[in-house]
Amino acid sequence: MIAKWNGQVIAEAEKDELIYIEGNWYFPPTAIKKEFFIPSETHTTCAWKGEASYYNVVVGSESNNDAAWYYPVPKDGSIERVHKDYTNYVAFWRGVEVNG
What we know:
single chain, 100 residues, 1 helix, mainly beta, globular, Metal Binding Protein, Guanine Nucleotide Exchange Factor, Chain A
């Protein structure tokens, strides 16, 4: 599967390496092309997954702020709920296309 923004592939992995949670595909941290990701100061909280951190996705001179998020420290019990450790796995929104 690939994640693409602004015509650029920014993450790529086999489908069986991804985790599907609440309508979003989460890519393993090794699947993202780090040169397109800049840490953001944004954080949000999910009631059952915990605190999310964000990345700005930058391709060329274009920036898609907070377009990727991950959970560096998932909330207790959430990994068991998902049945797989999703620590630092990255999901996308804000126009990032994820296709298989």
